[in-house]
């Protein structure tokens, strides 16, 4: 019976949940996609071909059992679908909202490759878990038996929270240390509400607290507490700090006012959504209202900045990117959404400097062309001599990516080894670092990457830590 409900891609076309009109969504920070109705979710799930080699699953970093929970959704067995989804993914409702499905599961769907249009996996995943929350199926992961061992997690982003969940379910006492006043990391302060509404993140953190995870917030390791003190208090430590050091711009005028970091800008906007007092926003420094905004960069952070500026009431929003549309790292779905909302993408351009007196009034823009491919296979941009022009700007946002902080120096632990890029060096199978009982996950190991990879790392590291804690003390100390 179940198989008769599947393989409907020949007669049923691909449909995404409807989007709110661009003019409407420019006015607020609410999520732009509407919910699937039950019938539509079942219909779209039934398009799955149930192929023998599910590329959607193999190209998902978490290897979610996508075909099976699509079949369960198509047959109305939503609670089972949720439980199967949750079994491999700590935060399926978050991944359903912010994963770049067009580059991962949906982009590798077999029926997409055959020209029938992908199964809308992300939208169904979001529907399944939102339904689970509405029906009370999502419960704190309280352990059956408590252990007297404790683990410290430094960083309350997705990698750290995923590890905390798995460790707590196993009965380990878990304390999460984070420099911010709310847990969630970039889920809370980096990603705008129109992609991920903040109550979605906060309810997961509340569940972790209900399960017994302890959060020590407003705590900067190396200042408020030493790394050695944390190691002394706990049986194992997981480093999940992420990477927050912004790459900078060079060139004449780079020190002018009105040139700001993407993370500072996004954090200010998200804090306002919580009702916080944000002096740099209220003063206008980190507020795009009434300004000509230029964003420099081509990743998902740049997409977040341009779409935030639109909602803040910027008079114009332009994005400069040194490659073309096909070679940008950001999600193509995000580019389309931004264009609908009025963002102007200026491809094959890069800043050469800035003009202004105390504050920037314009960006000196160099025009580029694509040359030979670089080491990653992408065509390298080349400067077109004599094609510079001035782009007027009142606010310039730098979204050039992030680099790791020098943790061994900041924390006074030179024996914690790092790579030549400054990321923590660890065993990629176990996530063990050069220090006994210390593990590391997420962007501080990978460099700036996707939330879904951090979740995978956190879950894997939790298993390694449980194995470490199970060893005799003499073996663990070696």
Automatic annotation (TrEMBL):
Q: Which residues form the FAD/NAD(P)-binding domain?
A: 150-458
Q: Name one Pfam family in it.
A: Pyr_redox_2
Keyword 4Fe-4S carried by entry: yes
The residue ranges of the Dihydroprymidine dehydrogenase domain are 25-136
Q: Which UniProt keywords apply?
A: 4Fe-4S, Iron, Iron-sulfur, Metal-binding, Oxidoreductase
| Single Gene Ontology MF annotation | metal ion binding
The organism's superkingdom is given as Bacteria
| NCBIfam families, sorted | gltD_gamma_fam
Name this protein carries in UniProt: Dihydropyrimidine dehydrogenase
């Amino acid at each position: 019976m179940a198989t008769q409900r599947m393989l409907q891609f020949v007669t049923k076309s691909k449909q995404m949940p409807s989007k709110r009109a661009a003019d409407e969504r420019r006015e607020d920070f609410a999520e732009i996609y509407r919910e699937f109705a039950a019938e539509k979710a079942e219909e779209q799930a039934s398009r799955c071909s149930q192929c023998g080699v599910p590329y959607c699953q193999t190209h998902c970093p978490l290897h979610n059992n996508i075909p099976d929970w699509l079949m369960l959704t198509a047959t109305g067995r939503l609670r089972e679908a949720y439980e199967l989804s949750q079994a491999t993914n700590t935060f399926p409702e978050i991944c359903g909202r912010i994963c770049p499905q067009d580059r991962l599961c949906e982009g590798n769907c077999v029926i997409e490759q055959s020209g029938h249009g992908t199964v809308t996996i992300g939208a169904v995943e979001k529907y399944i878990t939102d339904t689970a929350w509405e029906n009370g199926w999502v419960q704190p992961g309280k352990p059956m038996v408590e252990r007297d061992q404790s683990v410290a997690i430094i960083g309350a982003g997705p990698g750290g929270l995923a590890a905390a969940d798995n460790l707590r379910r196993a009965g380990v006492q878990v304390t999460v240390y984070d420099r911010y006043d709310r847990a969630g990391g970039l889920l809370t302060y980096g990603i705008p509400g129109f992609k991920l509404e903040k109550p979605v993140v906060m309810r997961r953190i509340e569940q972790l607290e209900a399960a017994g995870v302890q959060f020590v917030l407003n705590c900067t390791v190396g200042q408020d507490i030493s790394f050695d003190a944390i190691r002394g208090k706990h049986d194992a430590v997981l480093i999940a700090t992420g990477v927050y050091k912004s790459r900078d711009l060079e060139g004449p005028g780079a020190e002018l006012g009105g040139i700001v970091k993407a993370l500072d800008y996004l954090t200010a906007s998200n804090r306002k959504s919580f009702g916080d007092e944000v002096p740099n926003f209220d003063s206008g420094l980190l507020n795009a209202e009434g300004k000509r905004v230029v964003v420099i960069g081509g990743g998902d952070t740049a997409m977040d900045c341009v779409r935030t500026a639109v909602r803040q009431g910027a008079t114009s929003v332009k994005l400069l990117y040194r490659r073309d549309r096909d070679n940008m790292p950001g999600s193509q779905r995000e580019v389309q959404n931004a264009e609908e909302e009025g963002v102007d993408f200026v491809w094959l351009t890069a800043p050469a400097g800035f003009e202004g007196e105390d504050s920037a009034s314009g960006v000196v823009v160099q025009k580029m062309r694509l040359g030979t491919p670089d080491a990653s296979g992408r065509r390298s941009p080349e400067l077109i001599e004599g094609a510079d022009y001035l782009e007027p700007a009142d606010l310039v946002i730098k979204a050039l990516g992030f680099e790791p902080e020098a943790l061994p120096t900041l924390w006074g632990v030179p024996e914690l080894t790092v790579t030549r890029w400054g990321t923590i060096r660890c065993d990629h199978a176990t996530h063990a670092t050069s220090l006994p009982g210390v593990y590391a996950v997420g962007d501080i190991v990978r460099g700036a990457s996707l939330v879904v990879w951090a979740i995978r790392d956190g879950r894997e590291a939790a298993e390694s830590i449980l194995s470490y804690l199970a060893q005799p003390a003499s073996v663990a100390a070696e």
